[in-house]
From TrEMBL:
SUPFAM superfamilies per record: NAD(P)-binding Rossmann-fold domains
InterPro entries the record matches: NAD(P)-bd_dom_sf, NAD(P)_dehydrat-like
GO MF term list: oxidoreductase activity, acting on the CH-OH group of donors, NAD or NADP as acceptor
Gene3D superfamilies recorded: NAD(P)-binding Rossmann-like Domain
Protein name: Bifunctional polymyxin resistance protein, ArnA
Annotated keywords: NADP, Oxidoreductase
């Protein structure tokens, strides 16, 4: 997640774009790990420049259910047709898996929050022309008065 460097939409961003455009009416009953692309780049540099760094480092900020993702998107961008129903409501909600990014934190890396990354992802999608900018409710009220 985070700002797009390239002019095209990549695989890790496509589901976010689909939620915003209305091309999907439901969200999946699944979980996914999320991290800002800028944090991944910083982690690579930090590990390269730290001689004592060894082993595996998990670079992810959190694991969210897709329902949590659409809730965050809806709070920031209520003007878009974001799905509110799970595709498979008959099964129990998928549970997030447990991970630790403590090794990176111990080296001083501070990860951006998922909320910040999602917000900046959407703004980047708008700036790159992948997502039309919708008037917000306050913009609509201002236009009418």
């Amino acid at each position: 997640m985070g700002p797009l460097l390239q002019p095209t939409v990549n695989a890790s961003i496509i589901h976010i774009l689909k939620y915003l455009t209305g091309s999907v009416k439901t969200y999946a009953n699944s979980v996914q790990a999320y991290v800002d692309v800028r944090d991944v780049a910083l982690a690579h540099i930090l590990l390269f420049e730290t001689p004592s760094a060894s082993g595996r480092y998990l670079c992810t900020e959190s694991v969210l259910h897709r329902g949590e993702v659409v809730e965050i998107l809806a709070k920031f961008f209520p003007e878009y047709p974001i799905p509110t129903k799970c595709k498979d409501e008959t099964k129990p909600r998928a549970k997030p898996y447990i991970f630790s990014n403590q090794k990176l934190k111990d080296l001083g890396l501070e990860l951006k929050t998922v909320k910040q990354s999602l917000y900046e992802t959407v703004k980047s999608l708008q700036e790159k022309g992948h997502l039309p900018v919708q008037p917000t409710q306050t913009d609509d009220i201002r236009i009418r008065s």
